[in-house]
Design a protein that fits this description.
By secondary structure, the protein is of the alpha/beta class. The protein is built from 6 helices and 8 strands; from the N terminus they run βαβαβαβαββαβαβ. The protein has a 5-stranded parallel beta sheet with strand order 1-2-3-4-5, with helices on one face. Strands 6-7-8 form a 3-stranded parallel beta sheet. The longest helix is centred in the C-terminal third of the chain and has 15 residues. The N and C termini lie far apart (31 Å).
């Protein structure tokens, strides 16, 4: 499932507060622009319906799923909505393992090397470095120096241009 290496750069579109009526035009614009990773955070009403609608229109090489996935129930719900991507702000072994068991791409949140290594041991495909503005560029460089080569790091939170 680490076939995401073909997606350069591996940008994740995080669609916070997405309404079902916005799915088709926004999804089409994102997919046409080349986005292949789309996350709909679950902490908003209607997220599961939006995930299902996005998945129905997504190109075959796209991964659509949920963010702010905090429980095994969240993983089950997103999978039932045809989601293939699990993104969380935290590092929970049960959530990671359930996503893996269902064949989903697992990207739990980490902020320390201990969490990073635990997440990888539990089967994470990528590591959401969160909050990235707190970890900082020096922290990201330190992670890369100790993590296995090729580990996918997704900085989220406070990422700005330049």
């Amino acid at each position: 499932m680490n076939g995401l290496r073909h997606i350069q750069p591996p940008l994740v579109a995080i669609l916070r507060g997405l309404a079902l009526a916005e799915v088709k035009p926004l999804g089409r614009a994102l997919f046409d622009a080349g986005f292949r990773l789309v996350e709909v955070p679950l902490n908003r009403p209607g997220a599961l319906d939006c995930i299902a609608a996005l998945k129905a229109m997504a190109p075959a090489d796209a991964l659509v799923g949920g963010g702010t996935m905090l429980s095994v129930a969240d993983v089950n719900d997103v999978h039932a909505a045809c989601g293939q991507l699990m993104v969380a702000p935290n590092c929970d072994v049960d959530v990671i393992r359930r996503a893996r068991d269902l064949g989903m791409f697992a990207a739990p949140g980490i902020a320390t090397p201990s969490e990073a290594f635990a997440a990888l041991r539990w089967g994470a495909h990528a590591l959401k470095v969160f909050p990235a503005d707190v970890v900082g560029l020096a922290g990201l460089k330190a992670f890369k120096s100790v993590l296995p080569p090729g580990t996918l790091l997704w900085p989220v939170g406070g990422v700005t241009r330049g």
